[in-house]
Design a protein that fits this description.
Blueprint: E1 3-10, H1 15-21, H2 31-35, H3 38-47, E2 51-56, E3 71-74, E4 78-79, E5 94-95, H4 98-110, E6 116-118, H5 125-134, E7 143-149, H6 159-174, E8 181-187, H7 204-216, H8 226-233, H9 241-248, E9 255-265, E10 268-276
Parallel strand pairs: 1-8, 2-7, 2-8, 3-6
Antiparallel strand pairs: 1-10, 3-7, 4-5, 9-10
Bound molecules: 3,4-dihydroxybenzoic acid and fe (iii) ion.
3,4-dihydroxybenzoic acid (DHB) is lined by residues 12-15, 59, 192, 194, 236, 239, 266-268.
Length: 277
């Protein structure tokens, strides 16, 4: 049977790609964030996952405002990155795992989620940069399943819905009848707002309560509406829904194997957590 070996959640700003390209991992500005991945990489060397299921929000590369699925799951043999206009290098393509993808899609539909199924899919910085942080040589040792949740065009799925989605995804992974070691990755957040009067908004207190809640009480964030979450963490900080969905894939209590919080990376509060059952 497949087993979820752990969940990694992280922020995903495009300028991480610029810092990697310019070898700035040791610069004082970037070091606290990049260093947060050192223990995660050590752990990965031990657990050696076969597949990464990556929960993220596309920012207009694969889906645009004319067609915006609330939930989408990749079911392609491979996924390419492409230029999003940020001026950062693209990364090598990722192998897919169509059999696992279709199993997950079937499980989600049985659980009354109806994801868009993507047999052709580009992956953006929210997918590629966390992968590059986990495996800096970009010689990807895992097959991948991209899972998108819309945080770009309202209406967005509620926190409660995202947590339920993650739980359904976790059950579908658990009942896959292949001996696979599965890493779940959730990317986005934490608090940030890129536009409007509140551009630059950061809410450290809320971010840290949210991170703690993932361990102690994952339902905590579901008391907030989308509008309330946006008020707390900013228009793009709402990407923290990816952390909630990713946490939901682990049933029962979890512990944090590592956790980092650093302000800022670009306009964003940078958080990293590694959780395991
Ligand atoms: C930034 C953050 C994001 O989540 C994103 O998708 C793009 C840019 C930023 O802080 O610059
Ligand atoms: Fe983003």
């Amino acid at each position: 049977m497949a087993k979820i070996v752990g969940v990694v959640t992280t922020s995903h700003v495009p300028s991480i790609g610029g810092a990697i390209a310019r070898h700035q991992e040791q610069d004082p500005y970037w070091k606290p964030f990049f260093d947060g991945f050192i223990p995660v990489r050590e752990w990965l060397k031990d657990v050696k996952p076969d597949v990464a299921v990556v929960i993220y929000n596309d920012h207009g590369l694969n889906f645009f405002l004319d067609k915006m699925p609330t939930f989408a799951v990749g079911a392609a043999p491979a996924y390419r990155n492409a230029d999003e206009g940020w001026g950062i290098p693209t990364v090598p393509p990722f192998a897919g795992d169509p059999a696992l993808s279709w199993h997950l899609i079937e499980g989600l539909v049985r659980a009354e989620f109806d994801p868009t199924t993507c047999q052709d899919m580009l992956v953006d910085h929210a997918f590629t940069l966390p992968m590059a942080l986990l495996w800096p040589d970009q010689n990807w040792p895992v097959r991948t399943v991209p899972v998108c949740i819309n945080t770009v065009q309202h209406p967005l799925p509620s926190a409660a819905r995202c947590l339920k989605f993650g739980r359904a995804l976790g059950r579908a992974i658990d009942d896959y009848d292949q001996d696979l070691r599965v890493l779940v990755v959730g990317t986005g957040g934490l608090s940030h707002q890129l536009d409007g009067k509140r551009a630059g908004h950061i809410n450290k207190e809320f971010d840290q309560k949210f991170m703690a809640s993932l361990l102690a009480d994952p339902d905590w964030a579901t008391r907030y509406s989308i509008a309330e979450l946006v008020a707390e963490v900013g228009t793009q900080g709402i990407e923290l829904l990816m952390w909630l969905a990713a946490r939901g894939t682990l049933a029962g209590p979890v512990r944090a194997l590592t956790s980092t919080y650093h302000i800022p990376i670009s306009n964003t509060a940078g958080g990293i957590m590694l959780m395991a059952a």
